[in-house]
Design brief:
The chain is of the alpha+beta class. It is built from 7 helices and 8 strands, in the order H-H-H-H-E-H-E-H-E-E-E-H-E-E-E. A hairpin with a 4-residue loop joins strand 6 and strand 7.
Length: 204
């Protein structure tokens, strides 16, 4: 798949280097970053990477054990909604998860600035079309925020896209869209990482 990067900040090496040095991004990097096994697994993969950033050994299939998210022949036909992803993360981590919908741009920017705080994690649900003019709804962890440049570091779990940097306003536009599954707005999950996550269930 050929990705047309229409904004120079998306994969600018001069900006990616300091982005990977951000305090939470280093935890994701050192935890080992996993890519989704198929197009429907962005939600479970985001949850797995979030747990790996906290030292839990797990993967995108192990986080599904014991949850209500159940693949059919290895695929999630309708993907995962924001609320279902919240339940999946709660079940897998044992941590408090807050669903954030209907944020203003200023509220969203404040949360992105807080993504550098190691006591919290964020997973964002956004639509690719406002960013690249194509694509569908997607989940990925937020790895950090470059304040001086007002850029969010998104840890895209799709191997073709890779982690990228994008302006806060543009990412907000991509998040502030309607998910056809339930006709609710997309948004953020805020995970309270002050309490250690429980160990993942063994994979079946």
């Amino acid at each position: 798949m050929g990705i047309c990067w229409d904004a120079p900040t998306y994969q600018n090496p001069a900006l990616l280097a300091p982005a990977w040095a951000l305090p939470v991004a280093t935890l994701y990097r050192d935890g080992g970053y996993e890519h989704q096994a198929n197009p429907s697994f962005c939600g479970p993969t985001s949850a797995a990477n979030m747990l790996q950033s906290q030292g839990v050994v797990t993967d995108q299939r192990a986080v599904l054990v014991g949850s209500d998210v159940r693949p059919i022949f290895g695929v999630l036909p309708n993907g995962v909604s924001l609320d279902a992803e919240a339940e999946l993360v709660r079940d897998a981590s044992g941590q408090s998860v807050t669903v954030l919908r209907g944020l203003t741009l200023d509220q969203f920017r404040r949360h992105m600035a807080r993504s550098n705080d190691s006591t919290v994690r964020y997973i964002i649900n956004f639509h690719r079309a406002p960013l690249w003019g194509q694509g569908h709804g997607h989940f990925s962890p937020v790895l950090g925020y470059l304040e001086a440049e007002d850029l969010v570091f998104v840890g895209d779990v799709n191997r073709d896209y890779q982690p990228f940097l994008v302006s806060t306003a543009r990412l907000y536009e991509a998040m502030d869209t309607i998910d056809s599954d339930g006709n609710l707005k997309r948004g953020l999950l805020q995970i309270d990482a002050t309490r250690p996550p429980r160990a993942a269930s063994p994979q079946r």
